[in-house]
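Technical appendix A lists one of the benchmark inputs used to test multi-chain prediction within the project. The record comprises two sequence entries:
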Amino acid sequence: MNALYVICGLGFLSLVAEIANLKKGLAIAILLGIVAAIGLMVTDWNTGLHYYNDMLVFDNFSVAYSTLILVIAIFWFWMSGDYFSRQSHETDRSALILFAISGAIIMVSFNNMAMLFLGIEILSISLYVLAGSNKESLLSNEASFKYFLMGSFATGFLLMGIALIYGATGSFHLATITAFISSNSSTLPGFFYAGVLLMLVGMAFKISAVPFHFWAPDVYEGSPVTITAFMSTIVKIAAIAAFYRIFSFCFGAVQSTWGIILQIITVLTLVVPNVTAVYQSNVKRMLAYSSVGHIGYILLAFIANSTTSTGTIFYYLTSYSITSIAAFSVLHEVENAKTTTGFDGLYKRNPLMAVVMTIAMLSLAGIPPLAGFFGKYMVFTQALNNGYSGVVIIAVITSLIGVFYYFRVIIGMFTKTGEEGPISISSSSSILMVLLLALILLIGVFPDRLISLLN
Amino acid sequence: MILSFLIFWPLFVSIILLVVRFKNAKELALGASIIELAASLFIVSQFTKTAEPQFVVNVPWITSLGINFNVGIDGISLLLVLLTTVLVPFIILSSFGSAEKRPSSFYGLILMMQMALVGVFTARDGFLFYLFWEMALIPIYFICLIWGGEGSGKITLKFFIYTLTGSLFMLVALVYLYLQTSGTHTFEIGALYEAGRLLSVSEQSIIFWAMFLAFAIKMPVFPFHTWQPDTYTVSPVQGTMLLSAIMLKMGIYGVIRWLIPVVPLGTQEWGNVAIILSVIGIIYASCIAIVQNDFKRLVAYSSIAHVGLISAGLLTLSKIGMQGAMIQMLSHGITVFAMFYIIEIIFQRTKTRSLAQLGGIRNVAPVLSSVFIVVMLGSVALPLTSGFVGEFLLINSLVQYQIVIGSVAGITIILGAVYMLRTFQKAMSGETNKVTSGFIDLTTQEKLVLFPMVVLIIAIGVYPTPLLDISEAAVNNILVIVSDFSASVK
């Protein structure tokens, strides 16, 4: 809980930094602040404390996800340091990011529908602004507007769902709703189920599952790279965790209502983005589709068994977001170099970046012994164990399709010829890339601790 | 302990080479691979000829998923480990004549490949086996991609997707077996054997095909071979050597260790189909080889034919078939390595692999020509060469299995003689022409690679017993597992 205060405090500090003339030390202060927040968060492990009349709860689930969000946030700030210094209004931007992170933490630790809504809105409103932060770029403006329209639309569904559920059960409180469902399972009114489905649709928008994913590729492509990285990692983590928390903890008893729909959504989310990604020539857009595709694997773990898949989903999200940050940090540098040929011939121009991108692509494609492989492996095992062999075969085939588009980037880097001349990157970026590379390998070779963390 | 060294030593050197970028990476890699060879010879000296796995290392790795780092060596593994550790130094030595770009990464990847190969041949845990299986794919993919010829991007991607398709189905099959293990699930090989044998015939059949797909693509068996000729042709010669001399043995080894004993009923049910596919492949590939003009492509097709015979003989589930497969794997590895090296030598000097343009090399390079004759005779299985022992046992097993299949497979010897002698005629004999007139005979470094291979081809042909002895107990053990089970069902 204290970590949340620290993050909010950093946000306010960042807001006033311009006025108070504290800009110079701000970046360091934010990084130290997040490190401190991680420390505070870890001390909450195994306490399970409730706050604000049980509106928020920091059980192990919340602590693990919040820590993951904060760790990724450190990498994110590290990666995008120069993004801030090159732009005007840098303090406003970092403030918005920090508020978005606090929203994300609320989304993984809510114990009350109102808090869920609050978390989602804090996160989303900051992001609507950030997506359009490239003011001169038409695409960025389009991304922002599209994201805002679609986001508000989804929020509407979510709110309507919450209202109907409140009407049926008389509470916003998760535990009360769960208790009410189990004690009145036969007499629940029809509009309760409608509420559950509306919430499903609303959350599916937020996690960008097919067919509610249309906004994602455009928004990802239009936004600045760093913001795209933020959306495809921290926002994904928070949205999935919130989705999991509400549907597994709260609506587990009425799975018959939403189970089959979610299965259809899962299959679609596996097939559609993976096939579409093959046809993308822009790496950023390809990564957008790939990130939607990965949601499919996470949903597969979820439908396989919605109560014991906690560890699997956590591992998958961890490996996915670390790998994505690695890929985006390379993409960020490539875009900084303003080359027209993109990744082609990158190996000649900067071997480190090419190697990091290669490892990231291999991990996303699910090649052992990297982190991405173990995530997929556990999803498949879990699904097979629960009798979803048909969906597993589909997932195996979509992974193979994935190899096709991930490897196109690799082949381009190693065999095609791009612009001449080396790309030089700062030593801090190099260190970050090496660190992320090591993490991808480390989590892949020694997954045990991470898997058993939440099981 | 020595086995851990055998696996992690090449990995260690490979990481150093990949990270540090040495100038004299060649010498370092050669030294490392010779140390590896010495370690494997030490294992041979300590090995007792029983069926039990020896030098076992078993450490818990991912306990929550029932995965252990479990490796051990029995006779079958030992022969293949030996093939790997003997050939890799020569593969490295064979590259000394040509200057590769980015040598440090190149040799680093070769050694990483060696690590994965040794791992595949020694793994006694299903998951570990899969892991090494895939890890062998990554370095060879990059070797072929980066150092390969024109169009390597497309061709290697096809190769990668093909192999990955197979291995993913194998993974699903392994996981399925893992979920059938009793008590706390485990990937331990014995537990998987037990779980597999308890399945019904139809379940075993599905598992059989899921796993056979992976092995058949790797070998490759007709009709899963379409990636192979292009990939062999486009790869740098060291990549082709690794692929053909060692890596395809992973598929055959997989059939022996992870297919036949795991699903004996499935193998009996569908083995004949697989044998027929293999035999079709023998004839088909031999016929294509006869009309090839590209020397490297010709050997690639001949390799499909040889492997088809091995896989057919193996699936007869007879002792001579399996022993024949073991010895033929070694023989094929040695001859195909030497053959590709000779092609590379000719290519470096004449800049062509087209048989139509070559001719008369015998007149200007008698030593090379003599070496080629020995290697060629080994490849067409002349008595007293290594190829003969293996092919004789394999065809024998097939004739006992089914006389028609055996006779058809026997045609391979005739067809093999046809395309090999045709090659000899076109490339070596005849008049020396403009392309081959300036041909220089073998250099010392080339002799250093090829002469030991010649010695091995003849030595194994004359006296194969020591090698057959090494694998006998382990082969018997596998057959006992199969027959015990068939008896208990009947």
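Chain B has a mean pLDDT of 89. The longest strand of chain B covers residues 54-62. Comparable benchmark entries are summarised in Table A2.
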